[in-house]
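Quick question: what would this complex look like in 3D?
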Amino acid sequence: MQNPVTVETIRALARSNGLEIPEDRLEIVLKDYLGFLELMKEVDSFPLDMAAEPITTLSLVPDNSGSDPVTR
Amino acid sequence: MTEHDATRRSFLQHSAAAITAALLSPLTESAASASLLFSPQAAGPAEELLTLSLVEAAELIRNKKISPLELTRAALDRIADLDAKVGAFRTVAADQALAAARIAETEIVQGNYRGPLHGIPVGFKDTNYTQGILTTARSRVLQDFIPAYDATVVRRLKEAGAILIGKTNLPEFSFGGYTPGTQNPWDLSRNAGGSSGGSAAAVAAGMLWGATGGDTSGSIRNPASTCGVVGLKPTFGLVSRYGVIPISWTLDHVGPIARTVEDTAVLLQAMAGYDPQDDFSARLAVPDYRNALRSNIRAMRVGLPPASYMEQIHPESRRATEEASRTLQQLGVQIREIALPPALELARPIQRIVRICEAAAYHRQFLLSKAGQYGFDNATTPQAPDVRTNVEAGSLLTASQYLRCQRLRKVFVQQMLEIFESIDALLTPATSPAFSGQSSTSVSFRPEMNVCGFPAISVPAGFSVNPAGLPIGLQIVARPFQDALVLNLAYAYESATEWHKRRPPL
């Protein structure tokens, strides 16, 4: 089966993200993108509990000084 | 007669009046003459200064046997002699360094000794914001960027009295394990590794007594092992990343590179600690890392990866790791083979997806305004990373894909914590690509430590046989915030071996 992801996909995805990738760069970006999708296949193969939450980038911890909670 | 010999001889020729004048004059004037107040007898020729460890140099400074100015001049002379061949620096801030060294001398003479970094020349990776000094991340995108403030690590090391000598080389925006233009001091035909290759090469070549590195996929440990020096990736959250040009906010670590474990501990002591300006900074007390070096390691439980894992490692690295485990066993450590976490095989793809998604978010501003300026080395260096293409492709991944990786990352962290319920530390090779070719094995256990954030150090653990004479590193890993234990074990191993005493044939 032909790979469904093409330079057209890259062009469309980029535009939907507000990026304009020049025509002469679409092929090379496609190559990297396909590499990332291969990595995602490995990631997707691992069973993940429905309750699993992501590592957070934001948590609220009390400030030891007694002032308002600080954003972390 | 060298300039340093002349400087020392001049010490003896100055009168008490000159000394008094130096003490009484305004700071800038007294700084200029403060080296007169240091005793000349302890240190040998300038080249001998370069062989001192950081703590040895610090002790001589504390006792006024050598001066910060001498040490800084020795470093600058070494850089002038060798950096055309090694290529460790992006920027050498000679004037600022000499001015800072003069101030350090004055402070020490006046009794205001700050500690073991006072008057010690160090370098900063060119991702670290340095007030008033060009900070480019080796990219034309930032070719004119002069920060208005210091990164927290820069500020802290300066506050500890360290002398900023210059900014060290890296691949564009720290992408990749190869540092274009920086050669391995052990074999100048080979690369220093990366991405903190300039820092590791400068320390190995005796141009600096310590330097900072950044580690997102192994970028402190890789060049440290390649160049035969010590590199520590501290626990995530221990050292502030504020003011450091990022690759990936949840994977980036900043840490020290030095020639010995004790020097590394001294640098970490100054760098570590809570910083409210880094959202991931841990609000924890910082232990005394140098004191912890000599703790008893007997009965410490240390894990080795199973044979099936080790078989995938370059045979010379494998042999060095196994020999290191026997050395530690002789010191009383309990070595046991352990089962690796089931999610380990996913750690690397998770790391690569998280890294590129976060990098793409950071680089969006540049893709929109300066896309044509990427590619610092792409025309001349095939091994150079294609940062623009990488971040453009990363921009097309979805939030769902990113978050799936971050969910699995939590699973991996939990599995790693479970493994460490039965061991205190883990030994692995810190594979050196210098002799396994630039395409290092897919197994290294370096990026995996960025995914879980555990502390990991690379220490010199031998030299290759074929090709001959290239450094091999040993990696030691521990639980989060057990950085003192990592240093303790590394120090015990280093003390039982001689690898760190060898110097590159420059």
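Answer marked as accepted. Chain B touches chain A through 37 residues (CB under 8 Å).
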